[in-house]
Amino acid sequence: MTSLDRISVDPTIRFGKACVRGTRLTVGEVLGHLAGGMSEAEVLVSFPQLTHEDVLACLAYAAERERRTLSIPAA
């Protein structure tokens, strides 16, 4: 299993947003908590269904999306 295998997209769950597999927590929610200043340890305490590997998968998912983002130079 790769880290991205921990992320699922199902149109019937959370309107098709990327979620940590087996949960209803979106990648955006996990990243939002981290960006808001929570440590990984605090996120794991707040969401005991998550693991360290799930948090890494969220970061990997975001990094992959960033790599695939098309950058259009300003005119």
Write the layout of secondary structure elements.
Elements: E1 7-9, E2 18-20, H1 27-35, H2 40-46, H3 52-68
Antiparallel strand pairs: 1-2
Keywords:
Arc Repressor Mutant, subunit A, mainly alpha, 75 residues, globular, 3 helices, two-stranded antiparallel sheet
Distance between the termini: 43 Å
N-to-C SSE string, H for helix and E for strand: EEHHH
Strand content: 5-15%
- How many beta-strand segments? 2
Low-confidence stretches: none
- CATH top-level class: Mainly Alpha
Quick summary:
With 75 residues, this protein is mostly helical. Helices cover 44% and strands 8% of the residues.
Structure description:
By secondary structure, the protein is mainly alpha-helical. The protein has one domain (3-67): Arc Repressor Mutant, subunit A (Orthogonal Bundle), CATH 1.10.10.10. 44% of the residues lie in helices and 8% in strands. The protein contains three helices and two strands. It has helices at residues 27-35, 40-46, 52-68, and strands at 7-9, 18-20. A two-stranded antiparallel sheet has the order 1-2. Strand 1 and strand 2 form a beta hairpin. The radius of gyration is 13 Å and the shape is globular. The N and C termini lie far apart (43 Å). The model has no long low-confidence stretch (mean pLDDT 93).
